[in-house]
Amino acid sequence: MHPLPQVAPISDMRNHQVEVLSMAKKGPVMLTARGRTAAVLLSAEKWNEIAARLQQLELLLEAKQIEAEIANDPARLITDEELERQIAAKIVPL
Questions:
Q1: Rounded average pLDDT over 19-46
Q2: For the chain, which terminus, N or C, has the lower number of CB atoms within 10 Å?
Q3: What is the distance between the alpha carbons of residues 82 and 59, in angstroms, rounded to a whole number?
């Protein structure tokens, strides 16, 4: 279960920047304008965690797609090394 999001008016970025940035270290901050969510503020550390996790999931999906292609066409076999090479070619450094 996700904790309740932290919320701050977007004007706090101008008037209370240090406090809002401190909040972002604890978790995402929903910035609101006129009572509606306008943006989400994340710490750089959290952003990097999310980006790395997304890349892992994309690589897993790619591997599963290759497995499915092989399962659908038994004549199309590749070695483990070839599979690793194909996946490594898709890795983008963060």
A1: 94
A2: N
A3: 15
